[in-house]
Amino acid sequence: MTRTLEILDRLVAFPTVSRDSNLELIDWVQALLADAGFEVTRIWSPDRTKAGLFARIGPNVDGGICLSAHTDVVPVDGQLWTRPPFELTDDGDRVIGRGTTDMKGFLASALATAERAGQGKLSFPLSLSISYDEEIGCVGIQQMMPELRNLIGTPRLVIVGEPTSMQVATGHKGKSALNVTCHGQAGHSALAPDFVNAIHVAAGFVTKIQGLQDRLKSGAVDKDYRIPYSTVHIGKISGGTALNIVPSETQVALEFRHLAETPAREIESEIRKIADDVSQAYPCAPKVDVDVVNSYPGLDIEATKPIVTWASDIAGTPKTTKVSFGTEAGFFSQLGLDTVVLGPGDMATDGHKPDEGLAKSELISCDRMMDQICSSLRG
Ligand SMILES: [Zn+2]
């Protein structure tokens, strides 16, 4: 077993589902990094049930490499696993276990590299940013950012190791989740026309959102994405209490995913305008409320940048890609740091699935890339 597999075996055994604490894993990882000679800072979640880490080794100068990973995994509830999800199973050319692909495989490779990095002199620093609560909408990294931005310095590249089959991903869309509350007036259904029906208000809102989707489709386009335009989507509607009561409130949960060239605030203000238009049709009811529940920025780095070409070289995959899923990369890129998404495994075949696994060959490629990162830091 390689050191990377040994570490992955330990990491998978911590059942770090986002709803639960990750502190046991963090204790273990913090000790490993401290033993390897890293300066480690623990960054607590506001309620101190979880934590992230920032760790650095080497001189305090610009031009290092930062490796970024999240520690949480999605639940296994309701999924049919044929292997124990929180135990690493060796299955010939694959290993199986929750988080192997998303994204403890990359973290294991990064930690094995961290141990090796400390064994020789570095001219540039190697740093690790290790987060929590990524799977619930990049919540942890947002909470860590005020401290992280003071620690991270100016690495020449941040590698967010989400699974891309070791291909450099230069972009992904940003995303915002919104909760919209449509108000009406409760009353006897026999007298329905006397009252504002909150479900009718919501219906008007939903219809106009469909119109917004049509406009987005004919707006900005990036052909590197399977869905090449920004999208808006309604995922849940809840309203009303009983058939004989005019509903007084309806909640509409929606999200939009935007291309880098269409800022989130642009689509958000369109949605607020729609809410205002709908409200005007119902002057007797309170205005439609729009609350942004969560959002994360997109990523868009020029594929022709020399640092991206270098990343492709060390990854051994010349062609760059863009990914459909969101990552923490946009937060690093907002700090002005060159950032790519690059890691072992395939999100489409393994991410969030029962019997999630990872090809050993992907881990070997990742380890090989890490070796090249190490030599570049010694140079
Ligand atoms: Zn992930």
Automatic annotation (TrEMBL):
Q: Which Pfam families match?
A: M20_dimer, Peptidase_M20
Q: Which Gene3D superfamilies match?
A: 3.30.70.360, Zn peptidases
* Alphabetized PROSITE patterns for the sequence: ARGE_DAPE_CPG2_2
CDD domains the UniProt entry points to:
M20_ArgE (cd03894)
Cofactors: Zn(2+)
Q: Which InterPro entries match?
A: AcOrn-deacetyl, ArgE/DapE_CS, Bact_exopeptidase_dim_dom, Peptidase_M20, Peptidase_M20_dimer, Peptidase_M20A
Q: Which GO terms describe its molecular function?
A: acetylornithine deacetylase activity; metal ion binding
Broad enzyme group: hydrolase
Q: Which residues form the Peptidase M20 dimerisation domain?
A: 170-280
Recite the UniProt keywords alphabetically: Amino-acid biosynthesis, Arginine biosynthesis, Cobalt, Cytoplasm, Hydrolase, Metal-binding, Zinc
Enzyme nomenclature, EC number: 3.5.1.16
User: Which GO terms are recorded in the biological process aspect for this UniProt protein?
Assistant: L-arginine biosynthetic process
Family, per entry: Belongs to the peptidase M20A family. ArgE subfamily.
Q: Which NCBIfam families did the record assign?
A: AcOrn-deacetyl, PRK07522.1
Q: Which PANTHER family match?
A: ACETYLORNITHINE DEACETYLASE, N-ACETYL-L-CITRULLINE DEACETYLASE
What protein name is recorded for this chain?
Acetylornithine deacetylase
Q: Which organism is it from?
A: Sulfitobacter noctilucicola
The organism that produces this protein has a lineage beginning with:
Bacteria, Pseudomonadati, Pseudomonadota, Alphaproteobacteria, Rhodobacterales
